[in-house]
Specification:
By secondary structure, the protein is an alpha/beta fold. It contains 11 helices and 28 strands. A 7-stranded parallel sheet has the order 10-11-9-13-15-16-17, sandwiched between helices. The chain has a 5-stranded antiparallel sheet with strand order 8-28-27-24-25.
Length: 588
């Protein structure tokens, strides 16, 4: 089952344990040698779960106990005239202010005077490098100085890219690299239009001291009476719904729901209350609807939970959606649900350090008019090394590195990733939409993309070549708007591309790469690798060494030399995927 990851930095050491078994490396050749080939069958339907859409627009998840039952079930569904879509139920995981808030000086994203610095063992608040692992406690943070640069610890260095080769320990803040919040606040009067922001994420600690009054309330529901008062199919859905567990518990615990609580604080934490941080939107007209679609130790969720949450959000008045999640899989059900929606979706671009034009992260890379794709900007004005980029598929960048925001139980922590950048843009969209009562959501997108601050460091890496400038957006000349609406009527979901997943393992003093390639269409044609940074065009021209896959769709390689390696997969329809990793050979 595909994993839709909450878009934050992955912990490399966590990946090492995935393949540290004798079976994973048995029969491995030195990197570059061929291995036997075969295909993967019904591997996309892990756990036997099938997502079914019926002609009335409803969805259902069917479970089958065996491969034979699954095969028979798929055959039966294919002949059911009431069924319009059958697909795997993919799994998603998880990117000095003028206030008296105690921690506002740490919010470089809102006002960057060039003094912000993450210093080793000087962190006053916890630092999450992985939102679903334990954070570094105050005074215990060590910069991941080897991430993003060649050389260092044994294993894979995910997120290396040409966009930024600096480690976090080497980043120096640059004054003016911020969203220009103070200029925006100077003109914002709270707006006049009510705006509901749907937060698709883990749950949120709605009792946090800095989030009082930030949440949407379903006025047609009587809290705690155990009755579906508004007859919408959800009992006691007062502030939203838990689509991950199928209940009204939108906050589970601090382990499960830090990621979502952090995003909520960025959008709408109270300002000028003497505690904590300042959220971007300070208005009684903007409220957050909590839609828990991710959960568990790895922050995962399914196609069904996200699709149902989108339908719920629209039915209950949401207009802007924040999706800090992504996958390498082109998901037809999710695509069509978003294409059919009138809401604006702000989506994290992904944390693979990859060119999304060549290796898309979905749903950010869907070519839909109602999507804004957001990259992660560091406090020196460069893209964070983990951030995806793309001249066509990524719209703009926003601050997303070491963002201080709310975490459960009245806590505050730093997090990094495109998951932190997306709420910046979501908040900006809500602020603009509430302020200008006569504009459309299509206008909101046009304003945000047309008012970016251009940066040389972003030229060619995003469609706009700029970073979010909320101050400019709030003073935008509305007479220049094109007046063009969205048109997704002729849009078609992108073809399924091969998916490359790479893990590392150490065994008997050797380092191995385990490469898995899957293709939902079943027409995988070519797999190859090469030393160094190699493009899809170069592979198409014959560069690299071809390799084959075993019966599980994997190939194992012994690493003889540290360095940068690029892997390539293409199907018979010409869909391609390229993934580059830096590997350090272990000598221990």
């Amino acid at each position: 089952m595909r994993r839709f990851s909450a878009l934050l930095l992955a912990c490399t050491m966590g990946l090492l344990s995935l393949c540290g078994t004798a079976g994973a490396t048995e029969g491995a050749q030195t990197l570059g040698a061929d291995l036997p080939a075969s295909d993967s069958g019904l591997s996309a339907y892990l756990q036997g779960e099938v997502l079914v859409q019926y002609d009335d627009g409803t969805f259902d998840v069917l479970s089958y106990g065996s491969g034979a039952d699954l095969s028979d079930g798929l055959e039966a569904l294919s002949s059911d005239k009431g069924v319009v879509l059958v697909q795997p139920n993919y799994t998603y995981r998880s990117t000095v202010l003028s206030t008296d808030d105690a921690l506002s000086g740490e919010q470089w994203a809102l006002s960057n005077d060039g003094t912000f610095q993450m210093e080793e063992q000087q962190n006053e608040y916890p630092v999450y490098e992985d939102p679903f692992a334990d954070p570094a406690d105050p005074g215990q943070w060590t910069p991941p100085q080897y991430w993003g640069i060649p050389g260092g610890l044994p294993g894979l260095f995910w997120g290396w890219s040409a966009a930024s080769a600096a480690s976090d320990a080497q980043v120096t803040a640059k004054a003016g690299i911020d969203i220009n919040a103070e200029d925006a606040w100077s003109v914002y009067d709270g707006g006049s239009r009510d705006v509901v922001v749907a937060l698709f994420d883990t749950g949120v600690d709605t009792s946090h001291e800095d989030l009082a009054g930030a949440f949407w309330v379903n006025e047609d529901e009587i809290p705690g009476n155990g009755i579906d008062d508004d007859n919408n199919g959800y009992v006691d859905d007062v502030n939203g719904w838990n689509f991950y567990d199928g209940n009204n518990q939108i906050y589970v615990d601090s382990d499960d729901d830090s990621h979502g609580t952090h995003g909520a604080g960025t959008i709408a934490a109270q300002a000028d209350n003497g505690v904590g941080i300042a959220g971007i939107v300070q208005s009684g007209h903007v409220k957050i609807m909590v839609l828990k679609v991710l959960g568990g130790a790895d922050g995962s969720g399914s196609t069904a939970s996200i699709v149902q949450a989108i339908q719920y959000a629209e039915a209950n008045g949401a207009s802007i959606c924040n999706l800090s999640l992504g996958s390498s899989v082109s998901d037809r059900a999710l695509y069509q649900t978003m294409a059919d929606s009138s809401m604006l979706f702000v989506v994290a671009a992904g944390n693979d350090g990859a060119d999304s034009d060549a290796s898309p992260s979905y749903p950010a890379a869907y070519g839909l008019d109602n999507i804004i794709s957001v990259a992660n900007l560091n406090y020196d004005g460069t893209l964070h090394y983990s951030s995806n980029y793309g001249a066509a598929s990524v719209d703009l960048a926003a601050p997303g590195s070491y963002i201080l925001s709310t975490t459960p139980e009245d806590g505050y922590s730093y997090m990094t990733g495109t998951s932190m950048a997306a709420p910046m843009v979501t908040a900006a969209a809500a602020m603009v939409y509430s302020y200008y009562p006569d504009i459309t959501l299509a206008d909101v997108k046009e304003i945000l993309l047309s008012s970016v601050q251009p940066l040389d460091t972003l030229r060619g890496l995003t469609a706009t070549g700029g970073m979010l400038d909320l101050g400019a957006a709030m003073t935008y000349d509305l007479s220049t708007l094109s007046g063009q609406g969205w048109d997704n009527s002729t849009a078609a979901p992108p073809a399924s591309t091969p998916v490359i997943q790479i893990t590392s393992a150490s065994q008997s003093g050797e380092t191995y790469l385990v490469v898995q390639v899957t293709d939902d269409d079943g027409n995988l044609d070519t797999t190859a690798y090469a030393s160094g940074l190699v493009s899809a065009e170069q592979f198409r021209s014959g560069a690299g060494t071809r390799f084959s896959l075993d019966s599980e769709g994997t190939a194992a390689f012994r690493v003889a030399r540290s360095g940068l390696y690029t892997f390539y997969a293409a199907d018979q329809a010409g869909n391609e995927t390229v993934q580059t990793v830096y590997v350090f050979r272990s000598f221990f």
